[in-house]
Amino acid sequence: MTGAAPSGAARSEPLAALEGLLGQGSLESPPISAAGAAVTIVLRPADRDLEVLLIERARNPRDPGSGQVALPGGQVAVGDRSLGATALRELEEEVGLSERDLRGPLRYLRTELARQFGVRVAIFAAEYALSGRAPSAQSPSEVGAVFWLPRAAAERTEPIEVDTARGTARVEAAVFEGHVLWGFTRRVVREFFGLP
Fold first, then answer.
1. pLDDT tens per residue across span 28-48
2. What is the pLDDT of residue 120?
3. Domain of 25, in residue numbers
4. Which among 8, 9, 64, 184 could bridge 114 via Cys, Cβ 3.0 to 4.6 Å?
């Protein structure tokens, strides 16, 4: 059953994988000028696998990412001291998680261009503390759903038609419980897990 906390030997395999993935990151956050946005890959061990926390953006005709699955995150705001601060602020604004709900510090992975939005995005990763608050949509006008995606679900992709700001496009996507993971977020998640 997805989402149940594994115990004993079943838990050790995902924990080892999680530690290895987080070990790729740096504790140093790049300067605020290095990117225009930041996202966080929040991970938890579950059922002999890892899960990543994702959101589905609310439907809004003025939002170019309307209805898309994304990592929690967003644009740099005035007052953000670093890109890590941007990532943490957005994590709390979108899904209600703060540093207290994470096990250990944020790890900076890399910065990538989100071509659809024309912005460089700093990518961070962290482990969800099982004793932390449950993530939930904090702003219904921004976030339509919050869910955990098993790593195995990111492995399976298929061609699918999606609506974009430029019209309908045929893309490779992972579909999980009605959520369609494609584009920048799909690429970031698959690269993080070392999937081809």
1. 999 999 999 999 999 999 878
2. 97
3. 8-152
4. 184
Instruction: With CA atoms as reference, report the closest residue to 94 among 30, 42, 153.
Output: 42
Give the tens place of pLDDT for each residue, 60-110.
767 666 678 999 999 999 999 999 999 999 999 999 999 999 999 999 999
Q: Is residue 104 part of a domain?
A: yes
CA distances from 55 to 59, 68, 194 (A): 12, 8, 21
Instruction: Give a three-class secondary structure readout of the chain.
Output: CCCCCCCHHHHHHHHHHHHHHHCCCECCCCCHHHCCEEEEEEEEEECCEEEEEEEEECCCCCCCCCCCEECCEEECCCCCCCHHHHHHHHHHHHHCCCHHHEEEEEEEEEEEEECCCCEEEEEEEEEECCCCCCCCCCCCCCEEEEEEEEHHHHHCCEEEEEEECCEEEEEEEEEECCEEECHHHHHHHHHHCCCC
More confident residue, 192 or 62: 192
* Residue 88 counted as domain residue: yes
Q: 16's torsion region: left (phi>0), alpha (psi -120 to 50) or beta?
A: alpha
